Amino acid sequence: MTNGEGIHRTVSALRTALAGKPMVRFDAPRLVGPTPQAGRVIERIESHGKHVETVWDDNVVLHTHLRMTGSWHVYRQGEQWHKPHHQMAVAIEVDGWVAVCFNAPTVETYRTPDKRRHPGMGRLGPDLCQPATDLGGVVNLLLSYRDGAAPIGEVLLDQRVMSGVGNVHRCEVLWAQELSPFARVDALSEHDAVGIVNTAATMLRANLARSNRCTTAVYGRNGQRCRRCGETIDSRPLGQHGRILYWCRGCQNHLSPQQAARSDETPTDPHPAAQIYLASLPWNR
Questions:
Q1: Is the dihedral of CA 190, 194, 195, 197 positive or negative?
Q2: Model's pTM, two decimal places?
Q3: How confident is the model at residue 277 (pLDDT cuts 50, 70, 90)?
Q4: 223, 249 contact by CB (below 8 A)
Q5: Are 41 and 168 in contact (CB under 8 A)?
C-alpha cells in the first residue's frame, strides 16, 4: 500500500525518468484500451489520490488506480526489479529508464476529449508521416484555415489540417522556422506555409524509425539557452487543452504580434526582465 506522500514522491520520480522522452517500449498484459505507441513522447504524469495518469503527446492517457495493492517503481535499464515479473501490470521503457507498475487493479487507456475529433467537426487531415501525402494540399489547408485569427501554435495541433503533428513537433517546427507561435494564421505567406509543412513532414519522417527523438531544440528546455541565439527558452500553456508550448523569445520573432504592435513604440523599461514581464501581461499577449 502506498500513502499519499509516497505517491507524490513516486510521481516525481516518474516525471524525472519519463517526461519529455520518446517511449521505447510499452507492455501491459491486461490493458483495457488503445496501446501507446513506441516513439510517442511522454508529456506529463499526474496523480489524483491513488490514481496515476501518464499522458503522451498524441493525447493517449494511461490511467492506473493503485488502490491498496498497486505501486510504481523506477529502475535504470538493466537493473533488477524488486518484485517478480508476474506481478507487473505496466512497464514503460525510455532511454536509460524503465518504470514498472506492480499489482494495480485498474490499467486502462483513453484519449483526452478533443472536439476536433468529432465527426461533425470534419475528418482528419493528411498524414505527414506518409511519403505519398500531397504536401501542397496541406499548404492550402493551412492557408485557408477558417479562423484566421487563430495563432499558428494552436493551428499546428488541429488534426484537420495535418495529422501526426503532436506537441513536440509543434514546438520544434516553429523554432526551425523562426516563427512566433502567436502569429495569426492569416498572416502567413505561401512561403511561410510551405516552410512549415515541409519542415514538419521532414521531422516526422526522420523520427519514424528512431527510438530517440532527433529534434530537441526547444521542447522541454524551459530556462535553458537557445542553441541558435543564446536567449532563454520560455514556456506557456497554449491551446484548448493547455499543452505546454516551448519557444525562444530571442529568435522566434517572425510575424510576432507583439513586435508588430510595438514597432513604433519606445519600451517603458529597457531592462530585459521587465520586458519579459510586460510581454506576459494579458493585454500584451
A1: positive
A2: 0.56
A3: low
A4: no
A5: yes
